[in-house]
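Project channel, design review

CF: Before we commit to the Nocardioides cavernaquae constructs, I'd like one complete example in the thread so the newer folks can see what an input/output pair looks like. Taking DUF4307 domain-containing protein.
RD: sounds good, go ahead.
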Amino acid sequence: MPRPCSTRRRGGHARASAGAAPGEACGDSREGCAWHHVAVTDLADRYGRTPRPRSPRRGWVIVAIVVATPFLAWLAWVIWIFSTPSVQSEIESFSIPDAHTAVAVVNVTLSDDAVDPTCRLQAASTDKTTVGEQRFTPVEGSNRVEFRTERQATSVELIGCTAKGQTTPR
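CF: and here is what came back for DUF4307 domain-containing protein:
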């Protein structure tokens, strides 16, 4: 009667177990071993459980797609709206000619659909207190704005420009 064989790892080659007949080897070929007649079976047969059905996983994927699609559409819309403002502006230069006057040069870019654009400038003193503020209606290109201050200003800041439907100053 043939005796069972053992190996250190699956598919590996090793010496036959102590109970094997001399010259009998186990390896990829199971000939001569007691378990040679046992066929490798399905995992469900071997361990006594059935594989899980794939439909619940597919259901979660469908739910994720249904939830993610409107979110991604909204995200694309927000990116588009905020990346294409009606009015864009930047301060080119400023000067403080005297204790009660500030002058700023602002470059403004208006889109074709800009309605009622307004820009806002602020002058600050050395202690960072606002000493003057000016709102103006810009034109396309360079705008020179002179405004009065309460006392000596040291800097002029462009808060930004907005138009109808654009709430964030740019």
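RD: helpful, thanks. The radius of gyration is 40 Å.
CF: The beta strands are 87-98, 101-110, 118-124, 130-136, 141-148, 155-162.
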